[in-house]
Amino acid sequence: xxxxxxxxxxxxxxxxxxxxxxxxxxxxxxxxxxxxxxxxxxxxxxxxxxxxxxxxxxxxxxxxxxxxxxxxxxxxxxxxxxxxxxxxxxxxxxxxxxxxxxxxxxxxxxxxxxxxxxxxxxxxxxxxxxxxxxxxxxxxxxxxxxxxxxxxxxxxxxxxxxxxxxxxxxxxxxxxx
Length: 177
Description:
- The chain has one domain.
- Helix content is 74%, strand content 0%.
- The chain has ten helices and no strands.
- 32% of the residues are buried.
C-alpha cells in the first residue's frame, strides 16, 4: 500500500474517533447500540465504557437495553465486555444473565461466546434470589436450545452450569450467585 493511501485513511479515521468521543462526552446524541458500536471501533472498549459508565442515566439506559434482549443491544454488550469492571460492570453481568429467559437464542448465539456459561446460563447476578422454580425454568430453556455441532461444547457447559444452579437453589444454598 502506498504511503499516501495510508495517510488518506488516517485523517478521516482520527477525525471520526474525535467526533465519536465528543458525542459521548458531551451527550450530543442519545446513547444507542449503533453509537456504542461505532465508538468501540473508533477508540476501543475501555474509553467508551469509562465515558458511558460515569453517567448513571446513560448506563441505566444501556443496561435496560440489554435486558430487552434486542439483538443490537446484545452486540453492544459484547463490544463493551473487555472493559467491564467494578459496579457498572456487575450491572451489565446482571443484565446479560436475564437475557436467557427473554431471548434464549440471542443469549446463546450472541452473549455465550463472550460472557461464558457462568454468566449467561447461571445466575443470578442481580439482587433477585434464584428460586428453585426459576432455576428449573432456566435449565429447561437451556435443554431446549438446539445443540449444533459448532456450539455443542458451549451448550454442554451451559447445561452443567444450569444444573448446578438448580441443585444449589433446591438445597437453599443460593441467595446470590
